[in-house]
Amino acid sequence: MTSILRRNQSLKSILRTPKDPFFTKPTLKPYKNPQTSSTYFLPRVLNQIYFSTHSSKFPEYEMPTVTWGVIQGRKEKLVSRVIICDYLKSIGIIPDELEELELPSTVEVMRERVEFLQKIGLTVDDINEYPLMLGCSVRKNIIPVLSYLEKIGIQKSRLGEFVKNYPQCLHASVVVELVPVIKFLRGLDVEKQDIGYVLMKYPELLGFKLEGTMSTSVAYLVSIGVNPRDVGPMVTQYPYFLGMRVGTTIKPLVDYLVSLGLPKKILARMLEKRAYLLGYDLEETVKPNVNCLLSFGIRKDALPSVIAQYPQIIGLPLKAKLSSQQYFFNLKLKIDPDGFARIIEKMPQIVSLHQHVIMKPVEFLLGRGFSADDVAKMIVKCPQLVALQVGLMKNSYYFFKNDMGRPMNELVDFPDYFTYSLESRIKPRYQRLQSKGIRCSLAWFLNCSDQRFEERLYGDYIEPESSGPSFYMGGKLELPGNEIVSEEEESDDETLYRRTVSL
User: 32 or 267, which is more confident?
Assistant: First the structure.
């Protein structure tokens, strides 16, 4: 009994004066926020819980000293939010959109975020355009994204510009969202060194889902004849088509151009070279321009040839350009509206040619003794005259006059003479004719291929002359003096495109 009493007394003494620090109550130290008059009692241990961010993972950026701040209760969070909002207002940032956003617990963390964004080139106005970027942790969000963007080819000096254009990228996960998009672009044959250029042009690509718009737009273009190997260069030239919906944007435009008589395969070649055609608005631009061409006298069956030769014509401010050029041709060159329409059919690039450029060849011809009516006839027959270099025209003219000794009216009948190379075609062929004593027209020995010229040179008769190659809506090429080229003889539509179109 005595032993039991002694044990109880010793246990009570231990409980009254504990010596083990485990049983010791934490002493509360008053904490007063320097920016408010309120005083809070926080445990000494919790008051020292700050999270260090000293890391060497991204050495190119200076790491922040804190990430999120201290562990707080509900009341402390409300006070901190007020303090942070007051700070943002003091530097010109409007915090209204941050009401539903979780903010850091201390103003120091927010100040560090603002200073970091300003360091890469953003201004207060840029942040106000998208204040949600202030919800991104410098260490966990901003630095990993910027490091990856720099790695794939965006210059460090332009990272601020990139974030300004597409600040949503700061919320993205590098591994889950950004890397798959880059792999998709590389899979389309976009060159590695062009990735940064593509993203600077169209940064919204980083926010697209791979199985959505991007995949369907590429699949549709390949289905109409676009070479898969050309998709990469198309993306580099005009990446915006990856964000276009097939059903509402791309397919209606393609269907309309095909309805005008343009073969799909030729349209595919056009898109490979000029992917920006997909960006022309069908209702606002393309259809009004086609109607404008018809109103200026271009024949409907000539529209496919006009568009194939000069695809940009469907996206220009066409009415103003056609009106100006038609007036100029009528006033200066004495070419009536019907003649002007024939010129546009043969060389639609005329609509964008400067008038002082047009006048140089015209003045040269007038100076050689051609009448104004003859010059007008020559231009209607061969509009390419107005785009030639005067120096080359001089050489060809003097060879025609001095060496060939032919009458001037032959040039009026065949003005295409000036479009052929003097050294590689005119001189060699003329010398061959002279050696055989053959007398023929300019068109007979110039307007044909080398093989056809050899056949004519050794033939027993001289073929009747005919017009040059013509564009057919069915997609085949009719050569002068020959039947329509069959698909077996010339199955590549690129050959048709090269012969009928000069992009």
Answer: 267
